[in-house]
Amino acid sequence: MRGFLSWLVDRRLAVFQNDLIKKHYDEVRNMYRQMRGWRHDYHNHIQVIKAHLALGRSEELSAYLNELDADLTSVDTVLKSGNIILDAILNSKLSLAAAQNIRINAKAAAPEMIGVSDVDLCVIVGNLLDNAMEACVKLEDERARFIRVYIGNFKGQFYISVSNAAGPEIRKHGGRYQTAKSGHHGFGLARVDRVVQKYGGYVNRQNEDGVFATEVMLPV
Fold it and tell me: Which of 100, 106, 159, 175 is least enclosed, having the fewest CB within 10 Å?
């Protein structure tokens, strides 16, 4: 019996690790695709600027630069929370979510002293966003997909809120939320709970009217 349980745990961990590898691969591939797009656009912009300069069209050049500046401002969705690790997690995950036609509404401001290790911060935020994306992509109607993120200081606590569109497959078992996805999916929620408990924090999850929301409070 003990041998079977050990095999089962090893198998679930292997599946979980493979899933993490795939997610990281998808994130890196998405970022690389964006970088290639930026490089292509950058080259085109340089050619237009050179053409205006060569023809002495200073007014047209000025107008083009103003238009380019406005365009860059409108597409600059990179979050800058003040914490490098948090920014890296949020921007990679949310960039991947946007590539899957998920509407994003995110705001993040990290306290000066979070009091949470970088690894544990990755576990909490990474798993919350992974679960949110998985729930959204299951919805056939892409217009219904959304993820909202708010991270900041609330009543002297480090506050993390992630809510997303969700289908009817989310359910509770033994007081814990689960999904129809079997196997390793439960590891993500369990790991978040363990990390929050480690810091003496608080987790609240709610699911109603097609929205699944998670709140995490951690002592600063």
Answer: 175
